[in-house]
Structure formats: structure tokens, C-alpha cells
Design brief:
eight-stranded antiparallel β-sheet, Beta-galactosidase, Chain A, domain 5, 386 residues, binds 2-acetamido-2-deoxy-beta-D-glucopyranose, alpha+beta
Amino acid sequence: MLLLAALLAAAGGGGRREVSMQYNPGWNNSSVNLLHVRAVGQNDTLHYVWSSIGAPAALLVATGSQSSTLHVNWTRLLSPAPAGAIWIEPPGSVVYSTAVVFTKVFEYSKADTPEELFYPAYDLSSFSWDSINRTLNHTALTAEFLGVPASDPSGSFSNGSLAFRVTAYEANGRDGPLPSLLHTANSSKVEFVLAGVAPRGNGSRFALEVATVEEPGVARRLRSARSIDDEYTPTIFETLSLAAEARNASAALSFLQWKATAYGSRSPKREDGIRCRAHGLQAANWTLPASGVIRAYFGEGLGSAYAVSAINISFGGEDGEVYQEKRYLSWSALLGFGQPPEDTFSPLVISIMAVALGTPMALLLVGSVVVLFAQRKCYSEYEPIN
Ligand SMILES: *[C@@H]1O[C@H](CO)[C@@H](O)[C@H](O)[C@H]1NC(C)=O
Ligand SMILES: *[C@@H]1O[C@H](CO)[C@@H](O)[C@H](O)[C@H]1NC(C)=O
Ligand SMILES: *[C@@H]1O[C@H](CO)[C@@H](O)[C@H](O)[C@H]1NC(C)=O
Ligand SMILES: *[C@@H]1O[C@H](CO)[C@@H](O)[C@H](O)[C@H]1NC(C)=O
Ligand SMILES: *[C@@H]1O[C@H](CO)[C@@H](O)[C@H](O)[C@H]1NC(C)=O
Ligand SMILES: *[C@@H]1O[C@H](CO)[C@@H](O)[C@H](O)[C@H]1NC(C)=O
Ligand SMILES: *[C@@H]1O[C@H](CO)[C@@H](O)[C@H](O)[C@H]1NC(C)=O
Ligand SMILES: *[C@@H]1O[C@H](CO)[C@@H](O)[C@H](O)[C@H]1NC(C)=O
Ligand SMILES: *[C@@H]1O[C@H](CO)[C@@H](O)[C@H](O)[C@H]1NC(C)=O
Ligand SMILES: *[C@@H]1O[C@H](CO)[C@@H](O)[C@H](O)[C@H]1NC(C)=O
Ligand SMILES: *[C@@H]1O[C@H](CO)[C@@H](O)[C@H](O)[C@H]1NC(C)=O
Ligand SMILES: *[C@@H]1O[C@H](CO)[C@@H](O)[C@H](O)[C@H]1NC(C)=O
């Protein structure tokens, strides 16, 4: 019981942040999207910059000051040479910067052939995106980037769209809808949604390519954690994370974390699960992510001083038909600073374990007492014989 209380306290505690969202700060035009999420803590500020200028991306900057501010030179940002267009004042307050870019969506088919058949990839940097201004909710701290390919010769997107839904958090907690990710005030959620997009083949599966940018001396590592407890995300026992680690320390500086599942429904249930797999993390400084904000912030050093790595996350294993049927795919991931949150055993599983381990223990105890008494009785019975 004490253990249970301690675990609940650990899950509930933690710092709160004052979170605000600003759309295109300093620019009165909604033809491009830049969302600044400012999360002020006790004596630090976390800046998240989400943008669909080029490939959709999130720039994360942690600062050691409550009053650090984001600056954007819009004429430079929207020019072909955006380096230096985004910076933090005062520059000395910056503790750590990183970025995540969603570069491509692959579609492939495995139907009846040993070889995977790849269709032309969707390059997310050549999508056209709706203004997120009308989707901004300053109370729920959410926004949605909705896009379609600028040119769509196959007509796959005539009834569909691709979206990135962003949610910022002010405090620790757990999401209601599946996969019910546990989050901290240092993190935000991004949900990748394919809705109504016509597959180009029978049993099409999709994969999302994600790139990360790291400072010198920091590298991303793919971690996988398995647990016997699936109470919060039924039938899913694996949590994956791409953790940024300094070469001389193992504590994570930032992370992208997800459960090994996507869902084929707007209101996901256990049976809507779509298997999600991570393929190898690769050094990828050969292909610089075409994101305006990333180039603007990291500048010329992108790919040399700042290392780029990339990973493919695929959806649909043997059950490639789920998308065919539902025409809906949603995958959620948490993006944040510090250590990725870890699921502790749920109270239900702790009580089950307590019962499971406790019962034999009690039986053993009762058993030995009974044996002891029985032996005494035996001795007393045997004594007269002796
Ligand atoms: C922003 O632009 C709209 C129309 O384009 C205009 O009505 C509005 O006054 C402008 N706001 C500012 C603060 O310039
Ligand atoms: C965003 O929407 C608000 C109100 O809904 C409006 O006042 C503002 O001008 C819009 N911003 C841009 C850049 O269009
Ligand atoms: C917004 O910018 C685009 C491209 O820069 C331009 O075509 C459009 O006229 C601008 N809209 C407003 C309301 O200023
Ligand atoms: C931040 O604040 C906490 C307590 O509010 C304090 O313990 C810590 O030393 C402060 N850190 C810095 C870098 O000022
Ligand atoms: C913004 O960038 C442009 C082009 O690089 C430059 O000419 C201008 O001086 C910059 N503006 C500010 C306020 O720094
Ligand atoms: C914003 O989100 C809150 C809470 O989810 C909801 O009650 C409200 O209706 C939303 N506002 C808009 C404009 O959608
Ligand atoms: C789009 O939807 C309409 C009506 O729901 C349907 O008739 C049409 O075939 C769909 N097109 C594609 C490409 O799925
Ligand atoms: C898809 O499957 C249907 C029947 O299952 C078949 O008639 C059709 O030719 C297949 N299409 C392709 C592109 O393989
Ligand atoms: C790791 O190395 C950086 C410089 O590369 C240094 O500033 C930092 O103190 C080192 N951390 C540890 C724990 O050794
Ligand atoms: C890519 O990064 C590696 C390690 O950071 C470096 O050795 C290599 O020279 C880089 N390649 C290019 C083309 O910049
Ligand atoms: C992802 O998969 C596609 C198709 O196989 C491949 O072209 C691409 O290089 C892969 N990306 C990474 C980061 O492995
Ligand atoms: C959140 O970030 C702050 C500073 O950036 C750090 O002190 C704190 O430990 C982090 N919290 C978690 C739960 O990672």
C-alpha cells in the first residue's frame, strides 16, 4: 500500500508551466504557418516552434531564463537563404537546442509479392498547408497542420488529407484517448493523421520518415522498453523512444517517444490497433531537411556541426488491410525535454501482483504454522510412547 501511494505521488507531482501559443509572431499574413509555444517554468523557458514552411518541423530550445524571447526576421525566413532568421534573446540563455522534422511519407505494398513495391514517396516539403490560425485553441493548447500534396497526379488526396495535430501541456498527466501517453509539462504531443487518402495498391502500408538535428557532442539513440503491463494501452507492451544523449552522459536531453501502435479509427479502441515498427536510425547528413525554421535557426552548420539522423516508422504489419478498410491512420508521439516519462506499474497490476505473490506467501506462512503445530502435536503424542 505504501509502495502504491509512493508511485501515485511520483506520477502526480512535478512542475507546472505557464504555456502560451502565438501564431506567426510579427507577421500579419496567414499564407505560411509558424506556431510559437512558450512554456515558462520556475526559472527556465522552453520554446517550441512548429512550422510548415518547407517540411513540417518542430524546433525545441531550452533556455535558463524566464524572460528569454523568440525573434523572427520574416523577410529573411521567407527568402531562399533563411540562415539566421530565427534566434533567441539573450543568446546566452540557450541551454540546449534540437529539432524534429517530418520529411516523407512512403507507401508500399506487399500483396502477393516477396518484394515490397514502393509507390512514389510523398515529400512533405512540397505539400500545401492550410492556415492553422482557425484551428488554434488557446484553452486546450492545440493546433492542426492540415496539408495535401501541391500536385497530386494520382488523385489519392482528392478525398483525403494528412495532418499533424499538436498539443502542448501545462502539467504532468496522461491522455484520455488511446494510446493514453503519459506526459510531463516539459513535453508536447504530435499526432500524425492520414484520413481519407486513397491507397494506391491493395494492402498498402505507410511509413513516416522522421529526421532529427542535434548539437555537437549529442547523438540520438533508439531505445525500446518492454513491460508486462498494458493497462493504459491494451495489448501494447512496447514503448520506443529516440533519445538525445550527450556522448559523455547517459541521461537524455530530449526525446521523441511513442507506443508501438497506431490506430485505424477516430475514436480508437483496442481492436483498431495497427502495428507500428521502427526501422534503423541512420546518420543522414547527406539529406538536409528542407525545413525553413530548421535552416533559419541552425544556419550553415546544419549537417556538419549539427548532426542529422533519420528513421523510418512504418504502420501495418501483416494486417495491412486495416487502412484499406478504414481509410484512417493515427499515430501519436510525445516530444519533449529531459528524460522520457516512464510508465510505472498501474495500480490494478500492482494489486494483481500483490494478490498473485501474496497468496502463495500467505499459504506458505499458514502452511508452516500448521506444520509447526502439527509437529508439536505429534511430539506430544509420541512422548508417551518414548
Ligand atoms: C492584418 O491584415 C488584415 C487584412 O489582411 C487587416 O484587416 C488587419 O488590420 C491587419 N492587422 C494588423 C495588426 O496589421
Ligand atoms: C488569426 O486569427 C485571428 C482571429 O481569429 C485574427 O485576428 C488574426 O489576424 C489572424 N492572423 C493572421 C496572421 O491571419
Ligand atoms: C500574404 O503573403 C502572400 C505571399 O507572400 C501574398 O501573396 C498575400 O497577398 C499576402 N496576404 C496578405 C493578406 O497580405
Ligand atoms: C531553479 O529553481 C530551483 C527552485 O525553484 C532551484 O533549486 C534551482 O537551483 C534553480 N536553478 C537555477 C539554474 O537557477
Ligand atoms: C532581416 O533580414 C534581411 C535580409 O537578410 C535584412 O536585410 C534585414 O536587415 C533584417 N532585418 C532585421 C530587423 O534584422
Ligand atoms: C477549445 O478547447 C476547449 C476544451 O477542449 C473546448 O471546450 C472549446 O470549445 C474549444 N474552442 C474552440 C474555439 O474550438
Ligand atoms: C471521394 O468521395 C466521393 C463521395 O464520397 C466518391 O464518390 C469518390 O469516389 C471518392 N474519390 C476517391 C478518389 O476516393
Ligand atoms: C486488388 O484486389 C482486387 C480483388 O481482391 C483485384 O480485383 C484487383 O485487381 C487488385 N488490384 C491490384 C492493383 O492488385
Ligand atoms: C560533457 O562534455 C561537455 C563538453 O563536451 C561538458 O561541458 C560537460 O560538463 C560534460 N559532462 C559530463 C557529465 O562530464
Ligand atoms: C556526416 O557526419 C559525420 C559524423 O558527424 C561526419 O563524419 C561526416 O563527414 C558528415 N558527412 C558530411 C557529408 O557532412
Ligand atoms: C526509409 O525508407 C525508404 C524506402 O525504403 C528509404 O528510401 C529511406 O532511405 C528510408 N529512410 C531511412 C531514414 O531509413
Ligand atoms: C523539465 O525541465 C526542467 C528544466 O528544463 C528540469 O529541471 C526538469 O527535471 C524536467 N522535468 C522532467 C520531468 O523531465
